[in-house]
Specification:
Elements: H1 4-13, H2 21-28, E1 31-35, E2 38-43, E3 46-50, H3 60-74, E4 78-83, H4 88-91, E5 96-106, H5 114-124, E6 128-132, H6 137-149, H7 154-161, H8 163-169, E7 173-179, E8 185-192, E9 199-206, H9 215-229, E10 234-239, H10 243-251, E11 255-266, H11 275-280
Parallel strand pairs: 3-4, 9-10
Antiparallel strand pairs: 1-2, 2-3, 4-11, 5-10, 5-11, 6-7, 7-8, 8-9
Helix pairs in contact: 2-8, 5-9
Amino acid sequence: MMTPAEEAYALDKAYVPEHIVSLMVSISEAEAFLIEDHLSFAKDNWLIVVGYPLDRKFSQDRCEEIVKFNLERFRPEVLWFIGPQVPTSLLESCTERESDQYYQLDLDRMRVKTSLRNAAEKAGRTLSVERAKVFSRENEKLVSELLEREKMPPRIKGLYQAMPRYIAHCPSAWVLNAWDHRRRLSAFFVVELAAKHFVTYMLGSHSKKHYVPHASDLLFLEMINLARESGKNTIHLGLGVNEGIRRFKEKWGGVPYLNYEFCEVSRESTRAVSLVRTLLGRL
């Protein structure tokens, strides 16, 4: 189990959301471990190994050793690995693979386009922005609306449904809400501030029932303001996921900066179900 000093070290060195121990633990309810600058999380019959070393000195040989050590120590039925490269020893046994890229926004270099700022400010004349520390019933209703409207993979659906517990257990998390004049929720973002050097955009949604154009742009602008007020010059925007999400991130200046590889190895015919798998498929 990690000590408070080890967790503080991880937050100081973090450069991907999976380095934020409180975030990972609150969603997965797993136990965190620090092994040679690599984080891992274990619970029941499963294990996740984060292949991004905190010291940023990635090597295939070192990564192979970390995975081997974790497998021998925990003997999981299901292993989830994420990192810049999948270890050679896991390639043939992967039951599921994903490749993507992390996106980030450098606030020191970004310049918000006038048209984009005008659109956000126009939405601001209709909506009021709130910074909240709770995931309210109205947020849950908007999530229900989203899940009814769109078919989502179980892992994504599970992450949205985990938000009430996550927000309740992570004091570093914020909910940014956009309310209309009738106090109806038009959109929300969930933002995580625990890492020392960046803010993490977790997820968001907008309402079709109470739709206001550019509500999400208004919240993105608020997220930038929150990051700057917190002394952070980078926003981690998560994975590209799909073309629509990539376009939204890129129009605000987000750029791909780090390769993401995911590998699942299941040693049992029955696949484990866990919210940590949800997290890995979303961030």
